[in-house]
Design goal:
Strands 2, 3, 6, 8, 9, 12, 14 and 15 form an eight-stranded antiparallel beta sheet that branches. Helix 7 (315-324) packs across helix 8. The radius of gyration is 26 Å and the shape is globular. Helices cover 16% and strands 31% of the residues. The chain has ten helices and 22 strands. The protein folds into two domains: 6-278, no CATH class; 376-455. By secondary structure, the protein is an alpha+beta fold. Residues 456-473 have a biased composition (Low complexity).
């Protein structure tokens, strides 16, 4: 792209690093061997299969979770932009590439083999990118549809020693991207108008479909994946404009954010000029930890643990991993080259987020009256403090998506905390969590706003007089 393209947008580099992790999430899991059971069923996120095959297999749902396969995904996000702004997008996905080993026959011919020497048959993948753009004025005049195609290919490479050859094959892919833009009303504010003159709040919709017609409905999944867009996601920028968070929208855009419908993907911000719409749920402004030495294809795992366990593989297991996939070989090379100092950096990092200068009012060093072990907060007429029991009711928006799995569970309050804005939070451990005692020992809690809980203890005897303990008068 040119210097004014999508790559030049502030926040794009950080978003791209996360997008690369999304692209290869679960691509190949420890112990990185083809024979490992966890590597028998692959491609779990953002899989868009051809529409006829998907419909025949009942893949019609529209939930946010990108682990639910479909033939389409939809992103809706909010942007503020003038009429002359241009929306730039980049569709990214993996194209399956089948690597087949073929042994040489005495007559000079070849036949497929599971293995020829150290050469294994395996499904690799090739990253693909397709760019789209449209001006705001163009989209206000009507939706814009782009039909995109990735050609198939087939190559053959001889193996050393005339033992046979390796055949790589990719099947053609077809995709359809539809862009549309709708002006949104903004809520009135008590201050000045929230948007400068000439700017409008819009809802941008990006719908991506697998437009392929093959294979036949009775084809098994492992073969249908040959025609799939795998780990499909979208990056969006709007130079001259800005995006609005759907996770924490400002009051004037809250209704518009609630009206956005996302299916099989969810958009988050990287700065205010870039959106990453990912099949894996993320926070706004996600980042790859700077201590991470490279992709291990399992972002939910700890780099230190995976690296140390990789070092414990036997020589035979390492040979198989290297033969399985070039990315597995790269992981082994990187881990084996790590020094003790490299490993120590993975053990943990403490970042002091306190601003420079005088200790702020909210820090315990500045106000000894703030005491998480004894402070309390009133919830539905009940005084909640350390030791109280509550039922968890996470709010639908602005929460960690994984908190929704805890809806209705009971928890024990471990501390009442005060944040930099003066808001209170409850640190809790889930009561039926087998690791509850270990989490208490480590001090690893889950955090909820008081209004996200229902007290299970008795109500207050009477109204509170004055501020709660530890709260400024």
């Amino acid at each position: 792209m040119d210097a004014n393209g999508i790559d030049a947008a502030p926040g794009f580099r950080a978003a791209l690093a996360v997008a690369d992790a999304v692209l290869y999430e679960g691509y190949l899991l420890y112990p990185y061997r083809r024979s490992s059971p966890k590597n028998q069923v692959r491609w779990q996120f953002g899989v868009l299969l051809p529409e006829p095959w998907a419909r025949a297999h009942g893949l019609e749902g529209g939930g946010v979770a990108g682990s639910a396969e479909s033939w389409w995904q939809q992103t809706e996000c909010l942007l503020v932009a003038p009429a002359d702004a241009v929306v730039r997008g980049r569709l990214r996905f993996l194209q399956l590439r089948r690597r087949t080993s073929e042994e040489r026959l005495p007559d000079g011919g070849h036949r497929e083999a599971d293995r020829v020497g150290e050469a294994l048959s395996f499904d690799e993948a090739v990253p693909r990118e397709l760019d789209v753009l449209a001006s705001v004025a163009e989209l206000l005049a009507g939706e814009k549809r782009l039909d995109l195609r990735v050609p198939g290919s087939e190559t053959v490479t001889p193996l050393p020693g005339s033992a046979g050859r390796t055949r790589w094959r990719e099947w053609p892919l077809s995709a359809r991207v539809t862009l549309s833009l709708t002006p949104c009303e903004t809520a009135a504010t008590t201050a000045a108008a929230p948007l400068p003159a000439g700017e409008t709040l819009f809802r941008l919709r990006v719908r991506t479909e697998n437009a392929g017609l093959e294979p036949a409905p009775e084809t098994p999944r492992e073969e249908a994946l040959q025609y799939a867009l795998i780990a499909c996601h979208t990056l969006l920028t709007v130079p001259g404009g800005r995006f609005v968070s759907l996770l924490e929208p400002p009051d004037w855009a809250r209704d518009a954010a609630g009206a956005c419908v996302n299916a099989h993907t969810y958009p988050v911000l990287s700065g205010d000029q870039v959106v990453l719409s990912s099949p894996i749920l993320l926070y706004d402004n996600p980042r790859v930890a700077p201590e991470s030495p490279g992709d291990l294809h399992d972002a939910a795992e700890i780099d230190e643990i995976l690296s140390l366990r990789t070092l414990t593989l036997t020589d035979a297991e390492k040979r198989e991993a290297r033969a399985t996939d070039p990315r597995a070989a790269a992981i082994l090379d990187r881990v084996e080259a790590m020094t003790p100092e490299d490993l120590a950096r993975l053990h943990g990092t403490t970042r002091d987020l306190r601003p420079a200068g005088p200790v702020p009012w909210w820090h315990p060093e500045a106000d000894a009256s703030v005491s998480p072990d004894t402070d309390a907060v009133e919830v539905a007429g009940t005084l909640v403090r350390k030791g109280s029991r509550v039922r968890l009711r996470p709010r639908l928006r602005g929460s960690d998506p994984q908190d929704m799995f805890l809806d209705g569970r009971t928890a024990l309050v471990e501390a009442v905390l005060l944040d930099v804005d003066g808001a209170r939070h409850l640190a809790v451990t889930v009561e039926d969590d087998p690791a509850a005692e270990l989490n208490q020992w480590y001090g690893r809690y889950r955090y909820f706003a008081p209004e996200e809980t229902e007290p299970l203890d008795g109500p207050l005897d009477g109204p509170l007089d004055g501020p709660l303990e530890g709260e400024p008068a």
